[in-house]
Amino acid sequence: MLRLRFVFPTSVLLMLFCAPRCYTQEAQNSPQIIDRFAMIFGAKIHYVDVGSGPPVILLHGLADDIGVWASVISALAAKHRVIAFDQLGFGRSDKPLLNYRVSTFVDFLDGLLNELKIKRASLIGNSFGGWVAADFALKHPDRVERLVLSDAPGYAAVAKSMDPRALSALRLASRDDIRYLGPLTFHQKRFYEDVDLAFRQRVMAGDSYTVSRILDSMIRGEDGLRNCASSTTAVICHTLNARTSLTPPCFSFFPRQHESVDFRTLAAVSLCSAM
Question: Which end of the chain is less congested by CB atoms within 10 angstroms, N or C?
Answer without folding.
Answer: N
